[in-house]
Design goal:
It is a single chain. This protein is of the alpha+beta class. The chain contains 3 helices and 4 strands; from the N terminus they run βαββααβ. A hairpin with a 2-residue loop joins strand 2 and strand 3. Helix 1 (15-30) packs antiparallel against helix 3 (69-78). The protein is globular.
Length: 95
């Protein structure tokens, strides 16, 4: 298992445009064979902050996600809407 968390800070004047693109990307991502979970979360107290929680079979599945047409379109569409983006990855600990 490979987990990814993403925190995105959207410029205030782009919030209304960002979410439809984000949700379209999430719906398409959930159909990827290696994607087990793709959650989009926010807090009404911080409307410009979006938190993503993603689970993939492995790192290769996450890397393949970045090569999909829907992700590339999303990335192009929202690039100028994002003030800051932090991606953190976690690999399953095998003990």
């Amino acid at each position: 298992m490979f987990a990814v968390t993403v925190t995105i800070e959207v410029f205030p004047h782009h919030q209304d445009d960002f979410m439809p693109a984000m949700m379209a990307n999430a719906r398409a991502s959930r159909r990827e064979s290696a994607c087990n979970r793709f959650d989009v979360l926010s807090d009404p107290e911080r409307p410009g902050e979006i938190f993503l929680y993603e689970i993939y079979d492995d790192r290769a599945g996450f890397d393949a996600h970045h090569q999909t047409p829907h992700y590339k379109e999303f990335d192009r569409t929202v690039k100028e809407m994002i003030r800051r983006k932090t991606v953190t990855t976690f690999a399953e600990v095998d003990v």
